[in-house]
Amino acid sequence: MMHFPLGGAGTGIYVDNPAPALLKKGHEVRVLCSDHFQPEKEFAVEAVLLTNGDCC
After folding, report:
1. Residue of 28, 31, 29, 41 lying closest to 2 (CA atoms)
2. Residue 51, Cα to own-chain centre: how many angstroms?
């Protein structure tokens, strides 16, 4: 599991770049992450939410 807030975290940026390219090549892409909100991406993302979304 990676820290995946795609806006700023290095690991999130790393995942956000190759994942769509792999998807376009026909690979199945699924990401497990921790974040404050459920990310909406073109690939499957399952987030372990750190808050209920009411803050931040």
Report:
1. 31
2. 16
Quick one: which of 28, 33, 27 has its CA closest to 50? 33
- Sheet with 2-3, edge to edge strand ranges: 2-3, 30-35, 44-49
Task: Enter the pTM of the model.
Answer: 0.61
Cα 30 from chain centre: 9
| Residue (of 35, 9, 7) closest to 48 by Cα position | 35
How many CB atoms neighbour CB 38 within 10 A?
Answer: 12
Domains of the chain by residue range = 2-49
pLDDT digits (tens, 9 = 90+) for 32-48: 887 777 888 888 888 88
